[in-house]
Each structure stands twice: as C-alpha cells, then as structure tokens.
Amino acid sequence: MPPDTNNLSKTLTTEDDRILDLALRPASLEEYIGQERVKQNLAILMAAAQQRQEPLEHILIHGPSGLGKTTLALIIAQQMGSNLKITSGAALEKAGDLGSILTGLNDGDFLFIDEVHRLNHSVEEMLYPAMENFKLDIVIGKGNTAKTLQIQIPRFTLIAATTKIAALSNPFRSRFGVNYKLDFYQSDEIEKIVDRSAKLLGIPAQPEAIKTIAASARFTPRIANRLLKRVRDYAQVKNQPLDRTLSNEALTLLDIDQLGLEAVDRRILEIIIDKFSGGPVGLKTVAAMIGEDEDTIADVHEPYLLRLGFITRTSRGRMATSDGAKHIGRELKTETTRPLF
Ligand code: ADE
C-alpha cells in the first residue's frame, strides 16, 4: 500500500510526533521565526495593554493551516502572564458548552477557539455580549415560561483562529480589535525553522539536508518539522549520515516531490488538465473524482497550489496554469488565463 502521505499535511501522526511538536514550539515572540509584521503589531498591542493594565482586545488570526496560529495564542498568553483555555468551533456544540467555559475563566485569562468558522449560530450569538461587555445571556426554562438571566463573566480575551475568514459573519468579525493574517513563510525562514528544530532534537543534519527538507515543506512550519522527523527516521534505520542524497531518498519514499507536492496535489492537477483540458472545473467535481473531502482540498491542497501559481481560482471554477502542467509533465493546449472581466 502506498504510504498515507496525506498525514504529513493534514493531521498529527503519532503520539511521539505530538510530544515533539510541543517541544519544538517557540515559547516567545523572539524565538518565533517569520511573520514579522504580525509579531511587530502583537508586540505593540501587548506592551500598550500592559502599560494601561488592561486585558488585550479580542484577536482574530487567519491563514492556511500549520502556519502557527495556535503557537501565537500560546505565546500571547505566556507573555501576558495569563492562562489559556483551548477549544475549537466544532467542540462548542451548544450554548451551554460555551457558558461553562466562560464562567470558569478568571479575569485576564485567554480563550482560544480554533476553527472558529465552525461555531454554530446560537453559540456565535452568545459570544457577542460576552466579547463586548463580558455579559452572558442565559435562558432558563423552556417555552413561554422561559426567562433570560444576564450574568457578568470575567474580563477575558478571545483569540480566534480560522482558515476560512470569508466564512465568518460581518457582525462577528467586527467584534475583534485586531485581525492578523498569517502568510506562507519565506524559504529562508523555513530553513531557519528546520535548522532550529534539528538542533533542538539533536539531529545531526547537514546544511544541504536542511535545504532539501525545507524546499519540500510547502512554506509551512508544521510540515517542515514533520518531514524532518520522517527523514531522521530514515537516516536512523539506514544508519547513514543525514545529507542531501539521503533526504531526497526519504522524501521520494514518502511520495513527496522536490516542491513538496504529494500524490493528492498531483492528482488535482492531473484531473484539471487531463479530464477538463485545464479547466475551469468546480471544487465539488474535483473532490468527487479524487475521493477526497472538499474542505481538505480547499484548506490543505489548494492554498499551496495557488501559492506556487500552479492553479488559479476563477468565478467559473479552478484552472491549471502552464507552470502547473509543466510540473507534472503535461502541456496545456491553450494557456488558461484569468478572464479579463
Ligand atoms: N516551529 C514551528 N513554527 C515555528 C516558528 N514560526 N518559529 C520557530 N520555530 C517554529
């Protein structure tokens, strides 16, 4: 069976990986590599709030997965000397779930809600008065005997993260004091991250191996760290030094090419080019033909293909570019460019 390389960009693989990921997380803004503008803005926001001895304003962080949204939340809470409660949009099913979390916080605490676009409407609405004036409307009873009770909750700061900023309603978005966008990292930043992680894990990787791993990491720290660990496993089992050749061998075995494309990424390009003459083709169709979930394609695979300029998104669907075709050894019959209107 081919390896499930999807894992490398999607979910955590093993318990060992989870522990290693924690060990590799930067603990302060100084240690955090990249996202310079976000770091500078955050440093000002935190220093100003500390000088005024006020809680931080609510923070929204968006961008593709694996870029460090949770890590930033952990750093913010740590630098402000407060606790961070972590949950996710999908876990907060009922208003009561949110109510019990909010009432359990202390003044100055942080609440991190990952994948906040998955919050259901009633929970989102319950958050509004909580975010605005730290009040919670609780409904007691049912039907026409139901009563609403308003209670005061601790002055907390919400840090919300999403890969889908467009899925948030305007009223919700406007309740955040700041909205930071994380971008894919630069190649040199990813190299620094792989180098830092190799040193922290005591992996004797040669500089060329670091470069090779970084080049396949899709400009994403989480993937960079995971690839480093898989290549380290390979070097250990082969009992050979971790150099460029060995890194390439390990990545080939994982079915990851030199630009970091996995089988699913290449399949997306193949379908658009071979079955739809370069597009346009809708996301639903691509998802059905690959047998992959639409959200996974939109959140995990497409952002990187867009970043490489291998596909474009148009109002009529996805189109492949000539660079994308070239990468998988095809040639587009007609260059697919964006419509001019
Ligand atoms: N590990 C994961 N992300 C990182 C980052 N942005 N800086 C340093 N180490 C990291």
Terminal Cα separation, in Å? 46 Å
Q: Would you report the number of β strands?
A: 9
Strand fraction: 5-15%
Residue stretches low in confidence (pLDDT < 50, at least 5 long) are 1-7
- Tell the overall outline: globular
CATH class of the largest domain, named: Alpha Beta
- The largest beta-sheet arranges its strands as 2-3-6-1-7
CATH architecture of the largest domain: 3-Layer(aba) Sandwich
CATH-derived topology of the largest domain: Rossmann fold
CATH superfamily membership of the largest domain: P-loop containing nucleotide triphosphate hydrolases
In helices, the fraction of residues equals 40-55%
Short description:
With 341 residues, the chain is of the alpha/beta class. It has 15 helices and nine strands.
Describe this protein's structure.
This protein is of the alpha/beta class. The protein has helices at residues 6-9, 15-24, 36-52, 69-79, 95-103, 121-133, 170-173, 187-200, 207-215, 221-238, 244-253, 263-275, 283-290, 294-307, 322-327, and strands at residues 59-62, 84-88, 110-114, 135-140, 147-152, 157-162, 178-181, 311-314, 317-320. It has 3 domains: 35-181, Rossmann fold (3-Layer(aba) Sandwich), CATH 3.40.50.300; 187-253, Helicase, Ruva Protein, domain 3, CATH 1.10.8.60; 263-327, Arc Repressor Mutant, subunit A, CATH 1.10.10. 35% of the residues are buried. A hairpin with a 2-residue loop joins strand 8 and strand 9 (317-320). The strands form 3 sheets. It has a 5-stranded parallel β-sheet, covered by helices on one side. Adenine binds at residues 24, 26, 32-34, 68, 71, 193, 196, 221. It is found in: Cytoplasm. Residues 258-341 are annotated as: Head domain (RuvB-H). It catalyses: ATP + H2O = ADP + phosphate + H(+).
